[in-house]
UniProtKB/TrEMBL annotation:
InterPro entries per record: MMgT (IPR018937)
UniProt cross-references to PANTHER family, sorted A to Z: ER MEMBRANE PROTEIN COMPLEX SUBUNIT 5, PTHR21181
Record's bilayer topology term: Multi-pass membrane protein
GO terms for MF: inorganic cation transmembrane transporter activity
Recorded GO CC terms: early endosome membrane; EMC complex; Golgi membrane; plasma membrane
Encoding gene per record: LOC112049342
Name of the protein in its database record: Membrane magnesium transporter
Assembly and oligomerization: Component of the ER membrane protein complex (EMC).
Transmembrane segments: 38-60
Localization in the cell: Endoplasmic reticulum membrane; Golgi apparatus membrane; Early endosome membrane
Organism encoding this protein: Bicyclus anynana (Squinting bush brown butterfly)
Amino acid sequence: MASVHKIIVIVGFISLFHSAFSAAQHRSYLRITSQEFTALPLDIIIQAVVSLFAVIWGVLNIAGKLREIPAANELNNIKWETQRNLTSFYVFNHRGRALAYDFVPTPSKEDLEKLE
């Protein structure tokens, strides 16, 4: 059954290429005859859309069923407390403490020298 889908994809790509070539030919024809380009003919548009859907349908059927990535199995054995315990990222001296209602700024080096 997969060979039928592969044939559909190949025929779809050939048809898509043919519609692109036909569109280029149509533009060349319009330039040669000094006509203004307004839109592509309906048969080229229909061929391109049908070819695109054929390629999409064939590729989706060739790909098969999707499987779950088993990365979560390794995480199931790790305890919650140690899962993201990265002590190198602990920061205790940051500007968020200034938002506390009982914040008292630490004296700077210059303030300490003035007290002496």
